[in-house]
Known about the structure:
Blueprint: H1 3-14, E1 21-25, H2 27-31, E2 45-47, E3 50-52, H3 54-57, H4 60-65, H5 67-83, H6 88-100, E4 104-108, H7 114-118, E5 125-127, E6 130-137, E7 145-147, H8 163-168, E8 178-182, H9 191-194, H10 196-205, E9 208-212, H11 219-230, E10 234-239, H12 244-251, E11 256-259, H13 262-279
Parallel strand pairs: 1-4, 1-9, 4-5, 9-10, 10-11
Antiparallel strand pairs: 2-3, 6-7, 6-8
Amino acid sequence: MTVDERLEALVEDRLSSDGRLVVLSGAGISAESGIPTFRGADGFWTVGSTVYQPQEIATFEFFMREPPVTWAWYLHRRAACHRARPNAAHLALVELESLLGDRFTLVTQNVDGLHRRAGSGPTRLLEIHGNLDRVRCSANCGGATWPVPARFDDWEDRRQLDAEELDLLACPHCAARGRPHVLWFDEFYDETNFHFYGAQNAAAAATLLVVVGTTGATNLPMRMAEIAAGRGTAFIDVNIEDNVFRRHAASDPRSLVLDGPASHWLPRLAAAVARRAGSS
């Protein structure tokens, strides 16, 4: 069988009338839109003579010590995300949601907002690492998030904010510092902010788990894979490089490895699901 024939067969077997598709997306899908990966050269940040590494600056401890620098770094990354556009892979996921409705869940590690801008619905999208377009209270006074003020949409590449700009980002409820709505290295997943249980429940209910552009370097994606594997769920790994999900898919005759970019394979997956829907 060709790869496309195997893809058709997997869709037919796993996405019957009650089958559920869960997609886990990572940095690879956004890289195709021109967004640098977090740990790449764009992650470094220099203030004066000090060079900060991503693992240092992306922490709550650093934010509380240097909020003007932290915010400048994240606004710089946010501006790069806003210049990017959703690609064919993002649009294929929107089509899959349209075809499957409540039998579809998209779990993303990406904070760039491209899935939302492509048209993915908020009720079926779990942003497990947050979203750069949102702010939340650093004192956790209520759990709500709010939009980054429009003042920062045309952000210039400066190395830190001034006091007035920091005040614009303060919590509107308790006046504590507002912080980027992202998961930092010295923090843990929770349900309120990062869908800790929702993502695991989605993996447990899946009959097909599609992993796109991620190596599974963080805890929750790996936990999703363990849950799905333990229930005998079939995998599709869409990636340009080796990873733990690929090794699982390659060793499971029910699963499939699709070697190459997401913008090549996800439209094919959407087309296979559409053909199945048209024939049922």
